[in-house]
Amino acid sequence: METLECIKNRRSRRRFTVQKVPDVIIEKIIEAGKCAPSSHNSQPWQFYIIKDQALKESYAKIDYDENKEAIITCDFILVICIDKEKSPARFIEDGVLASQNMSLAIHDFGLGSVYIPAYKVDDQTKEENVKRIFNIPANLMPICLLLVGYPDPNEKLEEKILRDNKDLIEYR
């Protein structure tokens, strides 16, 4: 798939089939995340692949209602964490850049995903719950979760309408 085609056509998916994603594809998705730029090339990432159904169900109990079914039915949850000691100034950006690379790779492999933030700037509860449920060490900060699986072909997606360039760009 061409890069711009992949970017333009990637959509958040919340309904998945029961088909399992082969580990070889999961490894390639991780490879895409490792290729992301990071502050001072710090590469502060740590990735967790959550396939255990009981863990997914535990997390679904505390997440937003709109994501509960997706959390339970996705093939796996990819938790993207950052070691803030390796990237003290730009840890959020480093995590988001890795997640974007992985989201595009997921789409390129014919899979679907949805991005769920794993923290709130003004509330530590979400981050603490992610760490507790998925047993993430104290030195790591979870940035986001990607719910991943083969997309349900019957999922109804709203048309994605992009803003016009003239409303976004100023030449000076």
Kindly provide the name of the CATH class: Alpha Beta
Helix content: 25-40%
Q: Please identify, by name, the CATH architecture.
A: 3-Layer(aba) Sandwich
Query: Separation of termini?
Result: 34 Å
Number of domains: 1
Characterize the largest beta sheet: strand count, sense, and whether it forms a barrel: 4 strands, antiparallel
**Number of distinct beta strands:** 4
The neighbouring-strand order within the major sheet is 1-2-4-3
Q: What are the secondary-structure elements, in order, as H or E?
A: HHEHHEHEHE
Instruction: Output the structural class.
Output: alpha+beta
Low-confidence stretches: none
* Overall pLDDT: 94
Describe the overall structure.
This protein is of the alpha+beta class and 172 residues long. It has a single domain (3-154), classed as NADH Oxidase, CATH 3.40.109. The chain is built from six helices and four strands, in the order ααβααβαβαβ. The chain has helices at 3-9, 23-34, 53-60, 68-73, 91-108, 125-134, and strands at residues 45-50, 76-83, 112-117, 140-149. It has a four-stranded antiparallel beta sheet with strand order 1-2-4-3, sandwiched between helices. The longest helix has 18 residues, at 91-108. It is globular, with a radius of gyration of 16 Å. The chain starts with a helix and ends in a 23-residue tail after the last strand. The mean pLDDT is 94.
